[in-house]
Amino acid sequence: MIVRLRNPSRELTINGPMSVTKLLNRLELNRESVLLIRNKTLVPGDDMLADTDEIEIRPVISGGFGS
Amino acid sequence: MKCTVCREPACIDLRRHNSNFCSEHFLKFCRDQTARAISDHQMINPGDRVLVAVSGGKDSLALWDILLGLGYEADGLYIGLGITDYSDISKEYAQTFAASRGAKLIEVDVPDTYGYDIPNGSKAARRAPCSACGLSKRHIFDSVALEGGYAVVVTGHNLDDEAAVLFGNVIHWHTEYLGRQAPVLEAREGFPKKAKPLVRLGEREMAAYCVLADIDYMVDECPMSAGNKHLRYKEALNMIEEQSPGTKADFYHGFLRSAADRFTDLVEEGRSALGQCQHCGSPSPAEVCAFCRLVERAGGQRIELTTKGETHS
């Protein structure tokens, strides 16, 4: 599967199938800090990701505390 | 995984609520949580005109969308801070959203209006960028709200934001700040009422709301926020939350229930010493308020806020 990440922007190719939780563990990402998006919709933690999937892992943490 | 409400396939799991939701019921959950926060803390009264502080990010656009959906008369305020391309792109997201909802967006551009931008102005004034940014935005929120006759200014601060700020204030025992950390600050002389209707919703939930409601927003982080201590506090809290779901909500809402009122006297003591800024008339403990000092040090010019602000609808 193709996995797109941000901060910094990069693209990884990872062999599937694999569960969302396992992928996040492998990438050492906290599930509270990201969303997984496939075909413009969200993928919950127990879903399986196929070898042919294209996944965006979107960070959700924003840090500007100006207001 | 099935939706807790309708048993259709779920698209998101919320472990701290021990619930899963499909798209329809997740969007309803967010609206319900926002409505509950507004009601519990008497944030907005029937008929109030609401000014939404809009950055182009997920929280403020989701908040604006939810308030419009709940039937509130809510206009947006976008403040251009002159942070390179980031500000231009953020403004486009705010404008696109406003146009899609037929909503009114007031725009104030800091470089055009006051003659400085955050990257250079904060250096010249020897303030941290987030500090200069916050000071600028708060002054403009207040001015636009008072001038426009809005009953309340609402911001997109969410549960994660508030828990991180609380964490920092507790670590350093900033007791006066603890007294001010309320979801609502009532109006007083020179200040409009301010409220944070998203305090029952986490950061991940707001990003999910935008994805599911098809709201495009500025995903990239502000380039000036790198190294911001609140980002580290959020990471620390999320490490605990991952192992113990519900920790952030217990921490913040437990503080509001059990401890916040112990610090409010300290805020009142600080307020009694406020006079008026001799330049802009804002409440200030000094002859010249912090915002006017920032403008002066940043090399800009002080302008009273009467003619600025374009609107788009």
Could you list some keywords that capture this structure?
heterodimer; A: 67 residues; mainly beta; Ubiquitin-like (UB roll); two-stranded antiparallel ribbon; 1 helix; B: 313 residues; alpha/beta; Rossmann fold; 7-stranded mixed sheet; 49% helix
Q: Please, what is the average pLDDT of chain B?
A: 92
Q: What pattern of helices and strands is seen along the backbone of chain B?
A: EEHEHEHEHHHEHHEEHHHHEEHE
DSSP summary: helix tally of chain A: 1
CATH architecture annotation of chain A: Roll
- Which CATH class of chain A? Alpha Beta
What do we call the CATH homologous superfamily of chain B? HUPs
Radius of gyration of chain A: 12 Å
Largest interface: A-B, 27 and 48 residues
Tell me the quaternary state: heterodimer
**Secondary structure: number of strands of chain B:** 11
And the CATH topology of chain A? Ubiquitin-like (UB roll)
Average predicted local confidence, pLDDT of chain A: 90
H/I helix tally of chain B? 13
Biggest sheet layout of chain B = 7 strands, mixed
The CATH topology of chain B corresponds to Rossmann fold
Structural class of the secondary structure composition of chain A? mainly beta
Number of strands of chain A: 7
Report low-confidence residues of chain B grouped into runs of 5 or more.
306-310
The general outline of chain B is globular
